[in-house]
Amino acid sequence: MAMAKTTALGLALFAAQLSAHTLTVVPSHYVQSKTGSFVSVDVSASNMTFQVDKGIPLDAFYVYLPDGSKVKPAAVYQGKRKSQADVELVTDGTYRLELGNGMRYFTSYELNGERKRLMVNKKEREAQLPKGATKIMTTQGNSRAMAFVTVNKPTDTVLALSNQGLEFQFDRHPADIVAGEEVTVTFLMNGKAAAGVELDLSREGELYRNDPERKHHTTDNSGKFVFTAPVAGRYLLEASYQADSQSELADKVREGMTLSFEAALP
């Protein structure tokens, strides 16, 4: 049963990553002033910024405490339009809220004119591909959705790089982003500057504007891009990276991530 749940979640995350749906993790508060309080976290796959559309299994939703340790949330619920988690803020510092299921392999192929897929890598695919399969492509993928919550004093432990997969660094703490101030973000792939990362920056209220005001960016050769939040409020940063792979396990690498954050009043 546990394996079936993991496979189902992997398929759900891949489907969201490879379709128009965007995974988001959105806490009720990004900054709190006392320990022992809670934040309620909305998790959804949606087509419009912060408009919930589809609930997501939370088996792979974790809370990284300010000391770097990883725990499960206090309570979770999966609804039709969104899932929710209650997170207790037990100590001062910065927490990372993250939904992700680790690296997965996805093999697509064509059989009798129909596109099909298997959750296997290049080594495993030969034993499982049906006879006559064509246009075979194996993708190594990883998709994460996250947010940071800070209680009193900002800390950096949960911001540390692992040098694995697609990661980012702000030129300031996420709790210190202020409307009207320029922010530089650096993206890295396996610890090295990642040029050509495709990015979209959007803000809340898109449903109520004729112009969605989405801003598209691409990282430069140093993996950087610069943005300024025009007004205070909640924002969503979406990033995607893909490249051909020479590994024995995949033909292509594709990684995606979303970060919800708050720009404070000046």
Report on this model:
The chain has 266 residues and is mainly β. It has one domain: Immunoglobulin-like. Helix content is 9%, strand content 48%. Strands 2, 4, 5, 8, 9, 10, 11, 15, 16, 18 and 19 form an eleven-stranded mixed β-sheet that branches. A four-stranded antiparallel β-sheet has the order 1-3-7-6. The longest helix is centred in the N-terminal third of the chain and has 17 residues. The termini are far apart. The N terminus is likely disordered.
Features of this protein?
disordered N terminus; 9% helix; single chain; Immunoglobulin-like
Return Rg in Å: 19 Å
Strand content is over 45%
How many beta-strand segments? 19
The tally of domains stands at 1
Kindly, what is the distance between the CA atoms of the first and last residues, rounded to a whole number of angstroms? 50 Å
Instruction: Name the CATH architecture.
Output: Sandwich
Average predicted local confidence, pLDDT: 92
Class inferred from helices and paired strands: mainly beta
Q: What is the CATH level 1 assignment?
A: Mainly Beta
Q: Uncertain regions: pLDDT < 50 for 5+ in a row?
A: 1-8, 14-18
